[in-house]
Design goal:
Length: 487
């Protein structure tokens, strides 16, 4: 017997069949129970652990349907629309599910009904532990159930009981206006949902799978080589389905279902939409070492689903052989492998950002982030206000200080020293004046105006220097920095 402690004392939350035969029930105070039977054996309930176990059970049930959810504190709901025929029909699915749960040591009450509300109530309050109800007999099967089968609040249940409305059948055919006035619209909505007269949304644990393929093993598999063969087959079948739909996958997930009721998931995201089975299989196979020691007694089933897809047009390949990614100049497979090994946050690309300050004129984004094609030349013209003052491709992450001499205080440098090497300026172009974006500057950043110069020394090397601050503004003594070099 399990008990929980609250401000009102200790109460029973779960008990076995022997305790039920003695007349105990959930919600009874522990003091009252001990007064009846002093030798009761009790233990404190682990409510967070129960929630985690129920979530794991709901995830395991996804081998019967991709749409499952946990109904705390003691239930799991499955949307088996379009899934029952895969198991030989609803009766066979119910039988298989009951056998598997019994194998885990779980006692379950199962019900299949046309509506979620009816299935919830029948599973908990029907006279038989296993039941399948058709739409034609829905009213007849729900009528004898207690009103608690409608998922109502305790206050509403207590009010209904005081009026003698103890069963769902007592509500059928009654005038709706007085019921709504006394018990609220929620009670009638629950009744309509159970009877199928009002739609009820079902929010599963996992997002909707647009395309999915499954494979069941005749015998449990343990080795990575065997799993790799299954991955190749799943990837081939999934890509064939995507090709028929004219789609490409951006996010897929491999699930390997263990014989002990749990599963291992390997999510995968790609930088561009793809339906290349060899590419997907290679990426997934490279991740198998993450579950090397978690196979348990083996995997009995596997599924591969595409959770995010995009339109992907067909590509004409060579007549002699398939065009390789290297020949097409496609770096997406390489980026996917780098992400697979180092993580999405460590493989980034530079994207234009609307800012005139050079170090803020771009942002780094993961290669997995979907982006549109950007014209960097147009971006450069915009941030330079159409001027021809080109910026270097190589910028320092942090501008480096230099010692510079100029003929006039606000003129270009004639000589500067950088990294203990002196450079005499042969040509200079500028300035390009950039004012700071004070509303975006981080704390401690310089808020002075910059004058940028493109200079070339006597050896032909070109640099991008700027003076931080203006003499005429009476600020601190301006300093010179080098921000980049030209190729």
């Amino acid at each position: 017997m399990l008990v929980t402690t609250s401000d009102s004392g200790q109460h029973i939350t779960a008990l076995n069949a022997s305790a039920e035969r003695l007349g105990f029930s959930p919600g009874m105070a522990l003091a009252d129970a001990r007064a009846i039977h002093p030798t009761l054996q009790v233990a404190h309930a682990d409510l967070p652990g129960d929630e985690r176990a129920l979530l794991r059970l709901a995830l395991w049930c996804q081998c019967f349907s991709p749409f499952t959810r946990a109904d705390a504190p003691d239930g799991v709901s499955l949307d088996i629309t379009g899934c029952a025929h895969l198991f030989g029909g609803e009766e066979k699915l119910l039988e298989t599910l009951a056998e598997r749960l019994a194998r885990f040591g779980l006692t379950a009450r199962l019900a299949i009904a046309p509506t979620l509300g009816a299935a919830w109530g029948l599973a908990r309050h029907a006279s038989t532990p296993r039941l399948i109800v058709e739409r034609e007999t829905l009213h007849r099967n729900l009528a004898p159930l207690p009103v608690a089968a409608l998922r109502l609040e305790e206050t509403t249940l207590s009010a209904l009981d005081k009026l003698g409305l103890k069963h769902i059948g007592d509500l059928l055919g009654k005038p709706r206006a007085p019921l709504v006035a006394r018990f609220g619209a929620f009670a009638l909505r629950r009744l309509d949902e159970a009877l199928g007269q009002e739609e009820e949304s079902f929010c599963p644990l996992s997002p909707q799978v647009f395309h999915s393929v499954q494979y069941r093993f005749a015998e449990p598999v343990v080795t990575q080589d065997a799993v790799g063969v299954v991955i190749e087959r799943l990837a081939r079948d999934l890509c064939a389905e995507l090709e028929r739909a004219g789609k490409g996958a951006r996010r897929v997930e491999l699930r390997l279902f263990r014989v002990d009721g749990w599963f291992e998931a390997l999510p995968l995201a790609t930088s561009t939409a793809t339906r290349d089975p060899r590419h997907l299989a290679r990426l997934l196979s490279e991740r198998l070492d993450r579950i090397e020691d978690r196979a348990g007694f083996g995997f009995e089933a596997a599924s591969l689903g595409a959770f995010q897809v995009e339109p992907l047009a067909a590509r004409q390949e060579d007549l002699e052989n398939e065009t390789s990614a290297a020949t097409r100049g496609d770096v997406a497979p390489l980026l996917d492998r780098l992400v697979n090994r180092f993580g999405a946050q460590n493989v980034t690309r530079a994207l234009p950002y609307e800012s005139h300050v050079p170090e803020r004129a771009f942002r780094c984004a993961s290669v997995l982030e979907p982006v549109k094609h950007h014209d960097w030349q147009a971006h450069a013209r915009i941030v330079q206000d159409g001027a021809a003052f080109a910026r270097p491709l190589f910028l320092f992450a942090v501008p480096e200080p230099v010692t510079a001499l100029a003929e006039v205080p606000d003129g270009p440098p004639t000589r500067f020293e950088w990294r203990r090497m002196a450079h005499r300026v042969a040509r200079a172009e500028g300035p390009e004046r950039i004012a700071p974006e004070w509303w975006l500057a981080p704390a401690g950043a310089s808020r002075k105006t910059r004058d940028y110069y493109r200079v070339e020394d006597e050896a032909g090397r070109r640099f991008w220097l700027y003076r931080d601050g203006l003499y005429e503004r009476g600020e601190e003594m301006p300093q010179w920095f080098i921000h980049g070099v030209f190729a």
